[in-house]
Amino acid sequence: MRTRVLGGAGLLIGGVAWLQAAQAPPPATAERALVDQYCVGCHNDRRKTGGLSLEGTGLDNIPAHADTWEKVIRKLRSGAMPPEGMPRPAPPASAALVASLEATLDAAYAKAPNPGRTETFHRLNRTEYRNAIHDLLDLDVDVTSLLPADDVSYGFDNIAGVLGVSPVLLDRYTTAAQKISRMAVGSPAIPATADTFRVASDLPQDDHVEGLPFGTRGGLLVPYTFPLDAQYAFRVKIARDYTDSLAPFYEEHQVEVSIDGVRAQLFTVTPVAGRGARGRGDVDAGFEVRVGVTAGPHQVGVAFLKKTSALTEGQRLAPLRPAIGAGGDTRYQPYLGSVTISGPFDATGSGDTPSRRRIFICKPDQDSGLRTQGSGQGAAGPRAEPCARQILSTLARRAYRRPVTDADLQLLLDFYREGAGVGSERSGARPEEPRKRSEPSGVEGPPRVNVGGGGFQSGIELALRRLLISPAFLLRVEHDAANIAPTTAYRISDIELASRLSFFLWSTIPDDQLIDLAARGRLKDPAVLAQQVRRMLADRRSQALVSNFAGQWLYLRNLPAFRPDEELFPDFDDGLRQAFRQETELFFDSILHENRPALELLSANYTFVNERLARHYGIPNVYGSQFRRVALADNGRGGLLGQGSILAVTSYPTRTSPVVRGKWVLENLLGMPPPQPPPNVPALQENSEHTAALSVRERLEQHRSNPGCASCHKIMDPLGFALENFDAVGRWRDRGEDGAPIDASGALIDGTKLDGPATLRQALLRRPDDFVRTVTEKLLIYALGRGVEYYDEPAIRSIARDAGGAKSSLSGLIMGIVRSAPFQMRRT
Q: Which of 23, 47, 733, 795 maximizes the CB count within 10 A of its CB?
């Protein structure tokens, strides 16, 4: 007798089913009877509870009403329907109905898949733009200072439908293109600027910072790209608190400025005793040095020389709080506040940078050679144009993610000639004539940019600037196939598939190997495609799945904004905040790249910690700033549910939030988001000095007395209460904010009892298919850049099933998504 695992109910349905074959009516009749008995009483044409009627929805043609039946499946899986207090079918009957509905819908999808439709124009988001610039020009840029933040939809910032293009945004892209093209080619026209890098006020600076010279403490390591061979100024500021006061210290300290680990200057900080240091601007007066630096990327370090760890008598009397709080700066030694890098001054040349090596893959003939010293311009005579053509065609092929057409190249050459001062007559067009453009239909090209002529390098710079504001670079464009009837599914081109694949796995443009395969039409070959997925996952650029996908799915991007109350959590600092994020990123990365089951995100009995985080968790015998894998003896700490990052971003600054935590579990682990709250629902009443102090549980019980609130909270709250033993910063506790013992008890809708994080984890692991499907759904949204619809559900089930069901690995789910109809196809 074979046993099957059916659906989210997590029930083992044996060979003796709820419906005996010898006595049962036809399946459709049995399903109809079940629906009529338990569902139609509320979901009929008259009442239409929840906007849903099942009264006239025939079970004889389920695919014709797929949108309705997918809603039914989701509600039955979650146990949300029938509602609590109403008659319910036996669990085996409910599971059998779900299995039957899914089988029918999946079979119809297999015969005629509906891949959905992505937007025709899909703008690169800010992260993709930064990565594309790096891969195109070998140049790191600070996109946060160049472009506004992107809107978020369906939990991600790469959703095509909300990545609009406005005149203001186009203006920002134009400004960014000018700055990036100048830096990339090393233009002598680059003006002197000042960039200030600040240290978080709550970052501990008593120990060595990874990457800075040994024998130093605290400080800041700044990866910085210097645009020219020139002089640069480095200004060091010592940290002050909000009253402009310095921390009291009793002996001299020395702060070192280094470039690539080589000391450039050593400053001495004189003692400041007592609290009379307010407004003392002289303590770091003159902490500025000018140094000659070659163009290109360098590591700028500013740190204090390490002194003995023994404390003087005066230090022992001072409080040892490693942060600047509302009560002022109570640290006993100086900390770094900021470093400002200014320049370039007295430039001597463009230098030999990675960007210039990436761009200038050839040189013009010797008669008009490209000089790398002085202005770096070089003449741009007739014999220089073949080199310009080679440079621009190579850049355009990578930037546009496809083979370059003659129209693409002629447009860029026109800008090259204008910048180089050559003239337009060589292209057969007069300067006043409109340029021939190669842009996607319906997208306006950027305005003509006039720059005075100045040689070969100026010509390449202007052409590069034009390339960076081209819609072919900024937009991922997927054209409808020609001569295909509306609402027809068709396979996208290999070139479009290469872009989908690259932006999914790398968050950047395809590399030459992908473009080559796509141009030859080989990427559609399943064996070739699978080999490319394996290659790309092994590449360092797949780290984007950790920082971008996991960072958004798990809310890790919210960590920098998490600022707990410093009076309630005095030990929390930026070092711990950074450790939270690194723990979860290392954890997700290990499961992804070690081909571990996705379910291990919940069940793992190990994590990654350094000394600071281990001390916070109470894990002994971990020393040093390096992270390492450690086994967990505490069953409550394992998996995502026990990690500080998750527990912090689902809390308030002053307390935990069972509601936020429960909602996070429903949405991100079970794929069952609660309904939107009704309008005018009052917020949870907080304690005040004029009211009796109530625990969070007591206040939520009062809140649930409102019938409009109860329906959602009875689902969310038990999940959140099970995590109440973790405080707002993820530390284990036995008593709550009110001093009373923690009550982590609760019950799920299906009656499962909970009494803490261990039992919550076990309850989730009893529904493995729900979790794997949720991970698949989140990955598919991220991969497609659109939300999933009811017609995507069969594909999601198929991907999870083919990857191994509950045993699916993250890499297996990714491979399944790449092979799926929604990823490889599009609907007209």
A: 795
Residue 778 CA, distance from chain mean position? 12
For residues 438 and 411, the answer to whether their CB atoms sit within 8 Å is: yes
In whole angstroms, what is the distance from residue 640 CA to residue 588 CA? 9
Distance (Å, rounded) from C-alpha 121 to C-alpha 479?
A: 9
Taking residues 552-573, report their average pLDDT: 93
Q: How many CA atoms lie within 13 A of 114 on its CB side?
A: 18
237 φ, ψ to 5°? -120, 135
**How many residues in the chain?**
828
Count the neighbouring beta carbons within 10 Å of the beta carbon of residue 616. Answer: 19
The residues pairing with 342 across neighbouring beta strands, listed in sequence order, are 194, 233
Q: How far apart are CA 279 and CA 570, in angstroms?
A: 26
Residue 60 burial (10 A CB sphere; 0-12, 13-18, 19+):
exposed
Determine contact, residues 462/392, Cβ cutoff 8 Å. Answer: no
Which of 251, 254, 253, 289 has its CA nearest to residue 273? 251
pLDDT at 445 over 70: no
User: Distance between CA atoms of 812 and 600, rounded to whole angstroms?
Assistant: 14
Better-predicted residue by pLDDT, 363 or 416: 416
Stated pTM of the model: 0.87
Is residue 253 within 8 Å of 333, Cβ to Cβ?
A: yes
Rounded Cα gap, residues 639 and 67, in angstroms: 34
User: Pairing relation of β-strands 253-259 and 475-477?
Assistant: unpaired
pLDDT higher than threshold 80 for residue 460:
yes
Eight-state DSSP code of residue 425: G
pLDDT at 8 over 60: no
- Determine the Cα–Cα distance for residues 286 and 580; give it in Å rounded to an integer: 38
pLDDT at 314: 43
d(CA 545, CA 134): 17
* Contact between residue 658 and residue 743 where contact means Cβ atoms under 8 Å apart: no
